[in-house]
Specification:
The protein is α+β, with helices and mostly antiparallel strands. Helices cover 49% and strands 19% of the residues. The chain has seven helices and seven strands; from the N terminus they run ααβαββαββααββα. The protein has a five-stranded mixed sheet. It has a two-stranded antiparallel sheet with strand order 1-3. α3 runs parallel beside α4. The N terminus and C terminus are likely disordered.
Length: 232
């Protein structure tokens, strides 16, 4: 893993928290005899902490893979429209359950050179964030557009928005806003860093604009393949 010492220290701290809670729950549960319901509550709490550790470990392994000398990408000419449509179809039920309108506004765009599985992960991370931080009654819209020699996929939500001071740091490893920490203590703080690594490995860029109480727009931009390149 090519992680800096500071990153390793923060990662160790992030893992220490659920482990400490696990240990504390078990110690308290064993201090005296408890009811079945009390034991059940302790087990459920510990199961939640195990889930946090699993999510953090998976994200760390993914990031280690992406930052290795030879990330496992298989780049081929790829049409983003069908890929995004499939993801939106898959997440519509989740959006409906949260009373959020999820929609896709496609345009005719040239293909990009990409790895479908890794691009799916990047887009799923973005959509999951958008759905998570958008309140009931809001909307999440994916827009696919061609701009010059680039293809952009933008995920726009009507969520809580992000304070300006946080925007320059969002794609840093293990960075989370105060709101994200308050709303979801189980977040790993690695999702956006993983997105950045995936997009940049495709020769693209990722950016964000946001207004508090109005929402955010995360935009992925990729080099478009010319007709001649596809034929070659």
């Amino acid at each position: 893993m090519k992680f800096s010492g500071g990153f390793c220290d923060i990662a160790a701290h992030e893992m220490k928290t659920p482990l400490t809670i696990l240990q504390g729950n078990l110690e308290v549960a064993l201090l005296k005899a408890r009811t079945t319901e009390e034991y059940r509550e302790a087990l459920l709490n510990n199961l939640e902490q195990v889930g946090r550790l699993i999510a953090l470990t998976r994200s760390l392994l993914t990031l280690a893979t992406l930052t290795s000398g030879k990330p496992p990408f298989h780049l081929v000419p790829l049409s983003l429209g069908p890929l995004i449509q499939d993801l939106v179809d898959e997440l519509t039920l989740l959006a409906d359950d949260r009373r959020i309108t999820l929609s896709f506004e496609p345009q005719s765009v040239p293909p990009v050179l990409g790895d479908a599985q890794w691009l799916k992960q990047a887009l799923i991370n973005l959509l999951d964030n958008a759905l998570h931080y958008t309140p009931s009654g809001g909307s999440v819209t994916v827009r696919l557009q061609a701009a010059g020699e680039e293809v952009s996929a933008a995920v726009e939500d009507t969520g809580y928005g992000i304070e300006p001071e946080h925007l320059p740091h969002l794609f840093e490893q293990l960075y989370r806003t105060d709101w994200a920490r308050a709303k979801d203590a189980g977040g790993t703080g690695l999702g956006l860093a993983i997105i950045k690594e995936i997009v940049e490995a495709h020769g693209g860029t990722v950016s964000v604009t946001s207004q508090v109480d109005k929402g955010s727009v995360f935009t992925l931009r990729f080099p478009a393949l010319s007709h001649q390149t596809v034929l070659a």
